[in-house]
Amino acid sequence: MQAARLLIVGPQGSGKGTQGARIGDLLGVPAISTGDVFRAAIKDGSELGAKVQSVIDAGDLVSDDLTFEVVRDRLQQPDAAGGFLLDGFPRNLAQVALLDGYLAERDEPLTAVIELGVARAVSIARIAERAREQGRTDDTEDAIAKRLSIYERETAPILDVYRERGLVDTIDGVGSLETVTARILGALAARGIARPAAA
Ligand code: ADP
């Protein structure tokens, strides 16, 4: 058995938030979404929220240092001691280096990286639907276009780094929620990552 120290990576609209939460639940580890943390901070009117709101609404990335601070604090919570699933972090090579440093200090390397793939047309259609349903303030046409291009330019390259380490499982993100979840669980099980048997 391997601990579940996981990343889920995929373009906007790939369903990584939804699948990340499901996989976290099924494996008994917290799914930590930096986007969700930021959105909650904005909603609460906290200092963090005030710092990030305009950046997020424009579709730009929050600074690496601030984002890493948020992730590090969250990983230090007791529920993440046995494993975690990070959704939305790291998002560029600088963030990979920050995460590597943190995990190396603890001697707790990542155990798998789930790459959730969907065609661009599918992801655009899904975001349009989400914009209608959830009214996210960063789901405007301009912000979406910017986020997709940041994904292609800055985030996709992080997969090459993890691929070289033999960590990446590429999962087809098109299919029912259950089908995609089953694909991910299957790939993780092949690495010896599964929910621990109830004690
Ligand atoms: P999406 O994947 O659709 O862009 P997220 O919920 O993952 O949605 O992120 C929403 C926004 O939060 C991003 O556009 C960015 O401004 C900010 N954000 C999230 N994660 C990071 C990160 N790792 N680094 C910098 N900014 C981030």
Task: Please provide a brief summary of the model.
With 199 residues, this protein is of the alpha/beta class.
Description:
It is a single chain. This protein is an alpha/beta fold. It has a domain at 4-30 and 84-190: 3-Layer(aba) Sandwich (Rossmann fold), CATH 3.40.50.300. The chain is built from 8 helices and 5 strands. Helix 2 crosses helix 3 (47-57) and helix 4 runs parallel beside helix 5. The longest helix is centred in the last third of the chain and has 24 residues, at 141-164. The mean pLDDT is 94.
Tell me how many strands there are: 5
Strand order of the largest sheet: 2-3-1-4-5
How far apart are the first and last residues' alpha carbons, in Å?
Answer: 15 Å
N-to-C SSE string, H for helix and E for strand = EHEHHHEHEHHEH
Oligomerization: single chain
Can you tell me the overall shape?
A: globular
Report the CATH C-level class of the domain at 4-30 and 84-190: Alpha Beta
Provide the list of bound ligands, each named once.
adenosine-5'-diphosphate
Radius of gyration: 16 Å
Helix content: 55-70%
